[in-house]
């Protein structure tokens, strides 16, 4: 209850004072999990599911189905210290591998629409990776981990600090030979932090870089093929790969004019470059994309006797480019050569303001509004129109003419918190979120579509929750309902349109209970329904009223642990994923799974500590992700029982 959080508000607040839902995976949990993939850490977040692909690939779900394509990342605002990992119109479904989540201070997850705080893309949720406070890092460390399939990882951190300055350098490098044939990856992450503090000024400058070189394994096909011992390690796409590099630098500058007035500015630059084979398409083209961005987030916070006022403005300039090339012709309508080659200059300007009324010691009410102006300037570097020969009808790829497109959006948020006791509160929120169409939805067209007339996706949400501490039990329970309009999808004619409607409602809970004799139980879960509310032309059947595919109605996790002292911790984890449909017609289904993991961490002395993890303890046959495409059941296979071990050395201060 005393934990300081930043993602759910405009500044730092204790969890009991937050007026909306918020889940936190803290340092202790991250140190115990020692995750090889981000889904292992975020499985502790109610209402969230990071669906694991091969290597470091993943798809995200927060109060949503697992979304794919541009909508699979455009629906979520994913950030480090509040700075988006990718430019607003150029997201990537796998972008969480751009952040050093393994050595983060904590990961905060805000569920549901929050565009008033974060702007475009904060439709279904926000994932914010918080970097360490360099002043709090008192030791230098070095560590090594190993596991099956030639997995190994090295990590390090070193620091220096005095009363005014703190420096922290940390990072990790990992290699995985891959469970599947001809698969595996090598990944490196490095971060540098400098902090300065004085009575009036404070700064936190962060430089982060990542590199990923991956040999990607594709789906295996066939009904429940993930149970077939002869197919589990097959890689139908040994030629698939993904190479990705990312760089970010930003400086959070705070000027505390007086105890009631705070100015803050965060200028930033970011750069990403990626090349990969689209192995999930039968014709397997190669895509190259890159973005360069320059931006700033600026704000003022002012406290009055009974009011707190916040005003801010965000600005982002991005130059993005994309190429798609195919070496050999797949058919007359899917030719060899360059399918797309374009650049997009994008700008986003977004002012916002919030007013919080301290109505009494127990009651707090807030209201906020944001305006967002997004502009795209698209320049095609190839001939306009079809990519096929002039005599070919129904060409798969269409290149629109040069054009400028803009979107204007408003968002609002009304929230409140009533403190029933020192450690018990109820909270509620009415909010909306939006996302402007992504550049690929606007300009990478197919089947003769020359111009899109897409609207921004919009979500309206109502949530009501309660959190508190009752003796040794912490609880946080939230009930929500959400309606989405202008859902962007590709219809059966392969045209991008935006007249879809969906609904989402459910209940989420987080429980932490301290038992006698140093035992504890943590649990999180969600019961939800995600449904099509219009007859979308993504099927030749009427799907209005059907459940959305890849959207389990129930999922969650339970951790039972024993921590007799700070130096020892043993934990058994149960992961539950319910059944879900694989297609909009609701005719194909995955039955779900239950997994068990065992983790133990021991501090041997003031220098040495060890960590052992047994994943999939019962050696369950399961699919990390199930899919139905091009007439086939498709699966990313879950790995069998695996044992990982880590050793860490801490240097004297």
From TrEMBL:
Entries under SUPFAM superfamilies matching the protein: Porins
Protein name (Swiss-Prot/TrEMBL): TonB-dependent receptor
Family according to the record: Belongs to the TonB-dependent receptor family.
PROSITE patterns membership: TONB_DEPENDENT_REC_3
Residue stretches making up the TonB-dependent receptor-like beta-barrel domain: 144-617
Keyword Transmembrane part of the UniProt annotation: yes
GO CC annotations on file: cell outer membrane
Lineage: Bacteria, Pseudomonadati, Pseudomonadota, Gammaproteobacteria, Alteromonadales
Coiled-coil zones: none
TonB-dependent receptor plug domain boundaries: 16-126
Any single Pfam family the record assigns to this protein: Plug
Source species: Thalassotalea algicola
Alphabetized GO MF terms: siderophore uptake transmembrane transporter activity
């Amino acid at each position: 209850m005393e934990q300081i959080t930043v993602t759910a508000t405009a500044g730092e607040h204790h969890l009991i004072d937050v007026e909306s839902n918020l889940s936190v995976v803290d340092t202790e949990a991250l140190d115990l999990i020692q995750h090889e993939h981000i889904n292992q850490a975020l499985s502790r977040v109610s209402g969230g599911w990071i669906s694991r692909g091969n290597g470091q690939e993943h798809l995200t779900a927060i109060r949503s189905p697992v979304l794919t394509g541009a909508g699979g990342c455009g629906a979520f605002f994913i950030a480090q210290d509040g700075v988006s990992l990718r430019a607003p119109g150029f997201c990537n479904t796998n972008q969480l591998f751009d952040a050093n989540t393994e050595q983060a201070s904590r990961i905060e997850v805000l569920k549901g629409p929050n565009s008033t705080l974060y702007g475009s893309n904060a439709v279904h949720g926000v994932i914010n990776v918080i970097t360490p406070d360099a002043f709090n890092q008192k030791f230098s460390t070095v560590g090594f981990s190993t596991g099956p399939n030639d997995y190994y990882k090295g990590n390090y951190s070193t620091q220096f600090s005095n009363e005014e300055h703190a420096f922290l350098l940390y990072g990790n490098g990992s290699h995985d030979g891959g469970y599947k044939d001809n698969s595996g990856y090598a990944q490196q992450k490095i971060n540098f932090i400098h902090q300065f503090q004085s009575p009036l000024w404070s700064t936190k400058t962060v430089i982060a870089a990542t590199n990923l070189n991956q040999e990607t394994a594709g789906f295996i096909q066939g009904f429940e093929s993930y149970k077939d011992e002869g197919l589990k390690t097959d890689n139908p796409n040994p030629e698939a790969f993904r190479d990705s590099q990312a760089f970010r630098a930003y400086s959070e500058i705070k000027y505390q004019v007086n105890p009631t007035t705070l100015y803050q500015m965060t200028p930033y630059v970011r750069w990403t470059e990626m090349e990969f084979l689209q192995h999930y398409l039968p014709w397997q083209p190669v895509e190259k994309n890159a973005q360069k961005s320059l931006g700033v987030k600026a704000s003022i916070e002012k406290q009055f006797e009974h009011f707190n006022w916040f005003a801010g403005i965000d600005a982002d300039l991005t130059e993005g480019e994309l190429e798609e090339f195919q070496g050999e012709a797949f058919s007359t309508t899917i030719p060899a050569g360059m399918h797309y080659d374009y650049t997009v200059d994008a700008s986003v300007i977004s002012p916002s303001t919030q007013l919080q009324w301290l109505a009494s010691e127990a009651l707090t009410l807030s209201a906020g509004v944001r305006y967002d102006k997004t502009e795209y300037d698209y320049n095609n570097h190839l001939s306009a129109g079809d990519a096929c020969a002039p005599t070919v009808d129904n060409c798969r790829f269409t290149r629109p003419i040069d054009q400028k497109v803009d979107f204007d959006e408003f968002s609002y948020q009304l929230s409140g918190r009533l403190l029933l006791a020192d450690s018990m509160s109820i909270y509620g929120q009415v909010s909306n979120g939006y996302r402007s169409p992504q550049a690929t939805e606007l300009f990478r067209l197919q089947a003769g579509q020359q111009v899109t007339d897409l609207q921004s996706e919009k979500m309206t949400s109502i949530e009501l929750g309660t959190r508190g501490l009752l003796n040794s039990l912490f609880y946080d329970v939230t009930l929500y309902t959400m309606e989405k309009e202008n859902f962007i999808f590709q219809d059966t004619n392969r045209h991008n349109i935006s007249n879809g409607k969906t609904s989402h409602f459910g209940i989420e809970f987080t429980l932490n209970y301290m038992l006698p004799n140093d035992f504890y139980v943590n649990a999180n879960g969600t019961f939800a329904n995600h449904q099509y509310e219009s007859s979308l032309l993504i099927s030749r059947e009427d799907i209005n009223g059907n459940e959305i595919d890849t959207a389990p109605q129930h999922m969650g996790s339970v951790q039972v642990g024993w921590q007799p002292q700070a130096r020892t911790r043993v934990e058994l984890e149960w992961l539950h994923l319910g059944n879900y449909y694989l297609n909009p017609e609701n005719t194909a289904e995955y039955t779900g799974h239950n997994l068990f993991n065992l983790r133990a961490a021991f501090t041997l002395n003031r220098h040495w500590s060890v960590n052992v993890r047994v994943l999939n303890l019962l050696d369950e046959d399961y699919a990390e992700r199930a899919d139905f495409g091009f007439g086939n059941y498709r699966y990313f296979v879950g790995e069998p029982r695996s044992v990982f071990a880590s050793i860490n050395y801490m240097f004297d201060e």
